[in-house]
Amino acid sequence: MVSGIHYQISKDENKAIRQILLPLNDELQIHIYKDGDSYAFEAIPIISSVQTEAFSTTITSSPSYNILKETGSNKLAQIFIAGFKYSLNFKNDIQKGDRLVMIYEQKYRLGQPFSMPTLNVAMIEMNGKRHFIYLNEDERYYDEKGHEVEGFLLARPVTGARLSSGFTKRRWHPVLHKWKAHLGVDYAARSGTPVVAAGSGRVNYAQRMGSYGNLVKISHADGYETRYAHLKSFRRGIHRGKQVKKGQVIGYVGTTGRSTGPHLHFELRKHSSPVNPLKVVQVTTKKLTGESKKAFLTLKEKYDKQVESQLLNKTPFKKEQPLQSISYFDKRTKV
C-alpha cells in the first residue's frame, strides 16, 4: 500500500470487516467485500463531484508559503508554482504586498478533496505587473497573448551545486585580472558531478573550444541555445547531431579551459545573443491564430473577470478538512 492513500472501511457489529474501498488512481478503486464466508473483490469506478473554487492572497514571504499558510493545501501550492516555474523568478523578483489569484477545479469524494486540483487560471502581481496563465479548451496553458508557453529549462543543470557567479555585463575576471562581461552563470560543484541538459534539443557542438574548455552546445526551439563549459569529460554517446532530452546527462563538471576550479559555466542564448538564464526560461511553442485565438480570447475575458472579482471581494476559502473515519456501507453497494 502506498503511503498517503485514504481508504474507506466498513465493519459489522462484531467489528469484522464487511467492505473496503481502496483507490488505485483517480478513476478506479478496489472494492473488497464479504461474500458469504469469504471475501471477493472487483475494480469499480470512483464516483466524485467537481467544484470550481477560487483563492487569493497577498504575498508576505513567498507564493508557496502564503498559499500553504492560508489554505493548508500542499497541492494548491504545487500547481501554482508548477504553472509559473519556468516563466517567473519568484526567488529574486517577488516582493511583499504582491498579490496572487487561483481559480481551479477540485474533485471531491465522500465530501473530501480528492486528487490533484486542475488549475483554470492563475495570476500573480509582481512589481505592479500582472502575469497570467490560462487553461485553454485544448487542455494546454497559454499566456495573455495566446502563446503556449512550455518551460524547457531546469532550475539548475547541476544538482546540489552552488551559484558562484551570476550573469553580468561587467565582472572582475579572476584569471585575466580585468573587467570583463560574464555572459552566463557559474555553478560550483565537485569535479565529476553529472551535468544534465537544461532542455530537450539537438547537440550542435561537443568538443574543446578555447577558454570554454570542453564545451557542449544544445539547440532548442525558438532560436534558443544552451552552453555547458569547462567540462571534465563528455558522457559517452554525446556528439554533434545527437538528440537529447531534458534532464539527460551530457557531461561532467570539470575545470578545463580558463578556469580557477571545478564548476559549470552555463549560458543561454537566443539567436546568438546572450540572455540571463535566471531571468528568461521559457519558450513559445505554439501561437493561437484565427478561430482558435478568437475562442481563447473569449475564454480569457471570462477568466479575467473572475480574477478581478476575486481581487475585489476576496471571498473566504473553504479549507480542506481532515478525513474522518467513515462507516457508511449497509450493504454491498458500488460507491
Q: Could you explain the architecture of this structure?
A:
It is a single chain. The chain is mainly β and 335 residues long. It is 14% helix and 43% strand. The protein is built from 4 helices and 24 strands. The protein starts with 7 loop residues before the first strand and ends in a 22-residue tail after the last helix. Mean pLDDT is 80; it is low at 316-335.
What's the arrangement of secondary structure elements?
Elements lengths: L7 E4 L5 E7 L4 E8 L2 E8 L3 E10 L4 H9 L2 H11 L5 H4 L5 E11 L2 E15 L2 E7 L5 E2 L4 E4 L11 E4 L2 E5 L6 E4 L2 E4 L5 E3 L4 E9 L3 E7 L4 E8 L1 E2 L8 E2 L4 E4 L10 E8 L2 E3 L7 E5 L2 H24 L22
Antiparallel strand pairs: 1-2, 2-3, 3-4, 5-6, 6-7, 7-8, 8-9, 10-24, 11-14, 12-13, 14-22, 15-21, 16-17, 16-20, 17-18, 18-22, 19-21, 22-23
Helix pairs in contact: 1-2
What tags apply to this protein structure?
five-stranded antiparallel beta sheet; mainly beta; eight-stranded antiparallel beta sheet; 335 residues; Glucose Permease (Domain IIA); Nuclear Transport Factor 2, Chain: A; disordered C terminus; 24 strands
Beta-strand level of the residues, as a percent range?
35-45%
Low-confidence stretches: 316-335
Number of domains: 3
Q: Helix and strand succession?
A: EEEEEHHHEEEEEEEEEEEEEEEEEEEH
- The top-level CATH class of the largest domain is Alpha Beta
Q: Could you name the CATH topology of the largest domain?
A: Nuclear Transport Factor 2, Chain: A
Structure classification:
mainly beta
CATH architectural arrangement of the largest domain: Roll
Shape: globular
**In this structure, how is the largest beta sheet organized?**
8 strands, antiparallel
The gyration radius over C-alpha positions equals 26 Å
Helix tally equals: 4
What's the number of extended β-strand segments? 24
